[in-house]
Specification:
Distance between the termini: 54 Å
Helix content: over 70%
Number of helices: 3
Strand content: under 5%
Radius of gyration: 21 Å
Shape: rod-shaped
Largest sheet: none
Order of helices and strands: HHH
Amino acid sequence: MDVRTVQGQLGHASIVLTADTYTSVLPELYHEAAEATARLVLTTARTTARKVRRIRLPQT
């Protein structure tokens, strides 16, 4: 989530407090998001490769 949303959920009066407190966890969240994206891309690539292998193209 973005810092502004976290601020609202936690009821912080200042976004500075939220940013100062939770900025340390942001790199980990970015890393987790990158890993999830990589898993999605690799899973889709494998599925697509299997489908392509099943297709028999006409010989010319």
